[in-house]
Write a structure and sequence with these properties.
alpha+beta, 2 domains, four-stranded mixed sheet, binds iron/sulfur cluster
Amino acid sequence: MPMKRVYPDYYPDFRCVAGDCGHNCCIGWEIDINSAALRRYDGMRGKMGDRLRASIARDENGARFILDASERCPLLNKDGLCDLIIEAGEKALCQICRDHPRFRLRLRDREEMGLGLCCQEACRLILSQREPVRLILEDDGRSKAEMGRSDLRMLARRDHLIALAQDRSLSIPERMARILEAEHAALPPVAMEQWVRVLLDLERLDDGWTDILEAGLRSGPVQADAVIQEQLLVYFLYRHCLKEWRCQDYALGAVPFCVLSTQLIAWLCREPAELSEIARMYSAEIEYSDENLAALLDTLDQYNRGEDT
Ligand code: SF4
């Protein structure tokens, strides 16, 4: 299909570091297998075909790889590399493995793509950008689809918020205030400690996240670098605004969520060197948990609707 593709300027620089990754995404995550890949695996011959079929659990909700006792994907070898890629190449991967850590959002003939902060290398790449990130638009010129007025309005609204996030004549708190003001939105007037307690009440995947949250309650934060906070704000706005505005479930919570997420990551940081790991964990624990993400969005959405939370 003819498409317009949009991606942040750092996107093409991403390379998975595979065996050198300290937080391999093939450990600890449920890996669902899409139906086209499942058909391929069912028809694959030889030892790899047998191994694949023995590694898959199936039920009425679909198919997924059976993780071992250490929650490792059964195809991940001791060197941290994927045996399926080694034997059959990347094209043999299921959709989720081929895409990760990339995310995509379709808006008619436009596909927006980005890199998820939960990946150690993507996080390093995103937070190492020193210049304001630009969104690149690639248009093959063949699409005749007309973007609807409401979609165009949403894109312009998000562009405006990203421009505010990148206004370096203002401090980060001023930029956040302008962003919220532009949306007629607000954050509940509670201290960061209270938000950290909210996070402690949510489901957690990694005990290391609990340690970070508890450490946050014990000592005061350091001042996080303004450029890094800008990159976080832009990342969250790019990723979450359109998605939430379109699905409407938590439309009023989206922008406050982007601001709060940036504030929380910065606030939890004790040492500048920790920031990247805290951002990665926040993403893994909150952004990549449907339940936890919905809990925060819902709280912020209700607050901005004037409902009790
Ligand atoms: S977390 Fe990122 S860098 Fe690490 S193995 Fe997964 S995709 Fe590669």
